[in-house]
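Bump. Still looking for Asp23/Gls24 family protein structure tokens.
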Amino acid sequence: MTTMTAAAPDTDGRGGLTVAGGAVERIAAQAITELDGIGGAASRVLGIAVGGEDLDQGAKVSANVTGSTATLDVRLSVKYPLSVRATTETARKHLLRRVGELSGLTVTRVDITVTALHSGETETRRVR
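Sorry for the wait, here they are.
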């Protein structure tokens, strides 16, 4: 996480606004919940999923803030049968707009990794 200064100090001496990378991550994670059909990604340890992907969980977001710009790396799941391409494009446009509005930063790039597709039916597992 990087801390940035979004605005140069005013000429009347009031100072500037500083936004931490962690704040941008939380803003983006909350913004992604505003969209339907997108869920969270499982936590990973050494590249192996720990726990399961869930539409009710939040997406995993990493932010890199440099100056007045930010880039986002998002891991999420998509509800099947939604189009992965259309859903990720909608999510990308939404994040560019909402994170910019709420943080005052210019989001220059949003990388999205889809980690799972969820069917509308719940799967029941039984031991036989």
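Residues 84-103 form the longest helix (20 residues).

Edit: fixed formatting.
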